[in-house]
Amino acid sequence: MGAPAHVAGAIDRVRVAIMGLRGRGEDHIHGFGSLSNVEIAALCDIDDNVMAQRLHQVQKVGFQPETYSDVRKLLENKTIDAVSICDAPSLARAHRHMGHAGRQGCLRRKAVLVQSFACCNFK
Ligand SMILES: NC(=O)c1ccc[n+]([C@@H]2O[C@H](COP(=O)([O-])OP(=O)(O)OC[C@H]3O[C@@H](n4cnc5c(N)ncnc54)[C@H](O)[C@@H]3O)[C@@H](O)[C@H]2O)c1
Questions:
Q1: Mutation test of ligand 1: which of 115, 117, 119 has the most ligand atoms closer than 8 Å to its C-beta?
Q2: Domain annotation for the chain: domains and CATH numbers
Q3: Residue 26 Cα, ligand 1 centroid: separation in angstroms?
Q4: pLDDT tens for residues 28-82?
Q5: 3-state secondary structure labels for all residues of the chain
Q6: Span 77-103, pLDDT tens digits
């Protein structure tokens, strides 16, 4: 008996959400947007202007993401497989907020990528 040519599975198409859209978030949009098996399914930012710009960019390449200003609402969305967290440019906020969002994402069984520094200096 031969192996099936194609086995349908959860990784056929990964629905990704990106949170924090200005700097690194834009890079993540380009990165994820260039992968054939990834759909940019949601965007999240507290800044309406940044959201409008990124939504336009993402729609131009064919995605129709849902938009959120509150990451807690985003994480409640059961159709999202993975969350890329790129907010909080200050280290203190990064530890507090990104860590919390990352933990909550894991608890909801999502793959989580947190774009943050591992340390602030070499001491
Ligand atoms: N810029 C870099 O080269 C770089 C490299 C490595 C790591 N990082 C880390 O990546 C993260 C993002 O850096 P950046 O340079 O893209 O910052 P940025 O200020 O350019 O972008 C952050 C975005 O997050 C949004 N945001 C802030 N709080 C939010 C919240 N509660 N919910 C949703 N959106 C929120 C802001 O409106 C903004 O659009 C930081 O933690 C930074 O330390 C940055």
A1: 115
A2: 13-114 (3.40.50.720)
A3: 10
A4: 999 999 999 999 999 999 999 999 999 999 999 999 999 999 988 999 999 999 9
A5: CCCCCCCCCHHHCEEEEEECCCCHHHHHHHHHHCCCCEEEEEEECCCHHHHHHHHHHHHHCCCCCEEECCHHHHHHCCCCCEEEECCCCCHHHHHHHHHHHHHHHHHCCCEEEECCCCCCCCC
A6: 999 999 998 887 665 555 566 777 777
